[in-house]
Structures are given as C-alpha cells and as structure tokens.
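Objective 1b: paired records.
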Amino acid sequence: MKQYLTMAQFILDNGLVKQDRTNTGTISYFGYQMRFNLAEGFPLLTTKKVHFKSVVYELLWFIKGDTNIKYLVNHNVRIWNEWPYEKYTKSSDYQNETLAEFVEKIETNDEFAQKHGDLGPVYGKQWRNFEGVDQLANLIDNLKTNPYSRRHILSAWNPKEVDNMALPPCHTLVQFYVSQDNKLSCQLYQRSADVFLGVPFNIASYALLTYMIAQVCGFELGDFVYSFGDCHIYQNHLAQINEQLTRTPRALPTLKLNADVKSLFDFTYEDIVLENYDPYPAIKGLVAV
C-alpha cells in the first residue's frame, strides 16, 4: 500500500489550503489516480488497522439496496451514525439524546429506526433502483453476456434525488472492464475523498466488490483503479497522516471467498475471510459531518 502513502505525501506537498462544507478546513488537491494489481494481494491498508468487518457489512448493505442504518447498527458498524443523528437533532422528536443514546434507540426500537435511521436514497437505493432500474443486476448480466462492452457502469449520482440524501454520494461512478485474458478490472471515480478516514475503506470496499463479481462471473482478478476529484486531508487529521508516513507498509493480506457462492446477492459476512492481516495499530480521527 505504498501508493496510499505516496498520495498522502503528494497532497501535503502540493495541495492547497481550502475551506469546506464542514468548516474543518482541508489540504486539497484536485485530480489524482492510484492503481492496485489485485493479484498481488488484497489492498487493505497496513500502516493503520482498518476495521474490515465494517467494510464488509457496508458493502453487503449497499448490495441489498438498504438505506437505513439499522442493519449496520445491528452488526456493530458505526460508520454512518453521525449523519442521521445530525438530522435527528433538528427534529421535533429530539430530546437531547447523545449519539450513543440515539444509536441504542435505532438498535432496540424498530419504529424509531424506521423514522430516524434512514439516510434517504443513497448508494444502495441507486445501485438497485435508479429510477426503476436495478443497475447492479444489469451489470452482472451484462458482464456475463457481453464482457467486452464499454458500458459496464454503476452510478450512485442521481441528480433527481441527490438533495434528498443525508450525504450526496462521494464515490459516484464505477466502471468495470474485462481484458482479453479474462481479467476483471474496476475503476472508481470519487468526487470527494477524505484521505485519512474514507479512502482506506473505499479501496477495500471496491476491491472486495471486484473480487465478488469476478467470482460469480467467472473472471480472474485484474486491477482496481482509483480516480479522484477533490482528494483532501482534513486539518484535524494531519497528525494521523504524518504518523502513518513514519510507518513502513507491511505485506498485503489475502482474501478468500466461499467458492460455493454463485450469485453476488447470496454472499454473507461468513463467506468473506481475510487472512494474514498484520497492520500497525489503529489511529483514531474525528469524522467531519
């Protein structure tokens, strides 16, 4: 994962100080690209521990077409909690609950979760029902029937619904590519990228999606290409990034999928096994909401 550290250093050296929507402040650079050969190992960051369980459950949540955090909360995945909580604090139902108390209500009260846990038509909705189109099912069918097409696209950016989303999609467009030697590659375009917190998750998530699709469609592994618009390091993450830059990347882990799974929509958490992951300790940082 040297590519990640190279990008972080590049942004520190060449980025511009820029204010942002969250009023946290960033060092920002526009336009960057990384490439990972998936045959060389699973690209999970080793210069800090990444919570792989959250990566898996979030991706399964997208694939299900779900947009309510209850599924994530029930599996102790906390990465989306702040956005519905922020909206809840502005509602008439708010009773000065802390974030932890809000999450407990989401977990234990189905009616409360239905009312206050939904994020609007975010990723899962667009993947599975973009104005009536199941993009993900179509993608799988087209990869199987017309693998060399240049139209293997998955879009999360829906202008008609973006204003109704708790957070407009950061990773907006995905394209898959099948080579003549039967290797599946994936390119992600991300309009906005939090380098410290978000990017390590996104690398792992779209690499995992590529592994899963390759298996169910009968392809070998190609590359994951990660293209950025505004890639930024928040001002309150500078110490964390600099700590990682002192660490030498370790060997990549191995990902194993249950070979009996033949449909993308049948994968469960137990079908996805990460082996030989030996990262440095985790580094905490606040999410900018």
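Objective 1b, second protein:
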Amino acid sequence: MLDHCAIYPGTFDPITNGHLDIIQRASALFGGLVVGIARSKAKSPMFSLEERLEMMRLSVAHLACVECVSFEGLLVDLAKKRGARYIIRGLRAVSDFEFEFQMGYANKSLNAELETIYFMPALQNAFISASVVRSILAHQGQITHLVPASVVDFIKRKCHVDCT
C-alpha cells in the first residue's frame, strides 16, 4: 500500500457499481482516498450535492481509509488542500480516453507533482454510467444491479420510484 493520498473526483449523480468498484480497488492501494464530489452546476445534476454526498457515504461506510468531501472549483486546488499526489480516474471505453487524456494533462500543467492513474472498471461494470442510471430512473426501470445496494432505498425515496 502506498503511503500517499489519492483523490477520486466526480459528480457521482448517482454513485454506480462502477464507481464503487474503482473506489474499493484504489483504496486498497493508497493510505488514504478522498472521494471528491463536484458541485457541477453546469451538469444540472438529478441529485443535490448533499444527496450525492450522503449516497457516497452510505456506499463507502465499510472502507476505513475513504473520506468523502464536496468541492467547487479546480481539482488541483482540492488536491493541494488535501495533500494528494494522485488523481484516480476511470476509463470505461475508448470514448472516455480523449477527455481523460486532456484533463490529465491540464491538471499536470497546473500542478506538475500530480499524477493521474487510470482504472478500468471490472467487466460487469464497464457499461454502467450515471447517465444510464438516470435514464433508467426516468423511465421507472430497475437499477438495483447498477448501483450499490446501500443506496437503493435512498434513490427510491428521492425519485418516488420502485427501482427494485
């Protein structure tokens, strides 16, 4: 295990099994993992920042070295504030690569000491995205196989749907 701290940033609107898979694997590699939940007003999230933070805390409660925080502004500023040297990002498909590649270099240009580490999700989670979950929710579909079990009831109450 590395002694250093890493940050896994995202909107997590909502957290998916793919996100949790990456969090669990990254937390096993680092002495501390900060999950940074971005405000992301531009994305018009389905869930409020407070709701996304609560869902994340419910999902990672079993992971002692994971801390959940919300942030606004530049990721490099959060990394500096938290003493993180690594940024964790997920790559589901080739289509993710170009955006993540640009963001990795942009962050590196702002803080040369930051390294970005990319994780591929487990095969069973490769197709899952928060936007897919939101779309299924909008059509009253089943999401229990897409999100952590610890947040199903939370989402059900918030969305007033039977997602089981």
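The chain is about 40% helix and 20% strand. The longest strand covers residues 2-10.
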